[in-house]
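so my prof wants the structure for this chain in the C-alpha cells format not the other one, which i didnt know existed until like an hour ago. anyway here's the sequence
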Amino acid sequence: MTLDKVISGSAGSQGDAASALVGSDGSAAGGGSVSPIAFRLDPSSGVPSYLQLVQQVEQALRLGYLAPGDQLPKVRDVVASLAINPNTVLKAYRELETKGLTAGRPGRGTFIQATLTQVTLPELTGLRRSLIGWLATAEATGLDADGTAALFASVLRDFHENRSEPRTRGGAANNETGAVA
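here's what i got, hopefully its the right format
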C-alpha cells in the first residue's frame, strides 16, 4: 500500500495516482477543489480495498499530510481513478466517519474533522533518512521488497511484544531466546 500526497495542486514524488485526481491546471479531475490525498490500491496485499483506503487516510493523518478541514477526494473521482465500486469508497468513508476522523457534508463531500497523533516534521525527516539508509542496507544484502517487508513486520511485532512483557528483576524483559531485550 502506498500513499501519494498532493498539496496545492502539485504531485508528490509518485505523481501517477496523484495526476489521476489532479488535472493539468491543478484542479480536481472532476472539477472543484484539489484533495491533498490520492489513493492507490494493492490488489495483491490481501487487505480489502475499503480498508486500504481507510489505512491510507490514517497514515496521511499521522504523517501530517491531512489536517482538519481538508477534503477527501469525491467518491466519483476515486471510482474513476481506481476503477472500483462506489460502495467500496462509501464503505471506507463511513468507516472513517464512524472512527470520528471525517464528516460528510451533503452535496459538498467528505472532510477531515479530527487528526491522529503525529510526529513533528524534524523528527519525521530524521526517521525517514534513517529508514532509507536501513532499506539501502537491506537491499545490498539481497533482500527484495517482500523480504524487507517481512523482516520489518517481524521486528516490529517482536519489538512491541517485548515492550508489553512483564519486566524482570533487572528491569529488562527477556525475549523468547532468553536474551535481554
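also thought this was worth mentioning. Residues 1-32, 169-181 have pLDDT under 50 and may be disordered.
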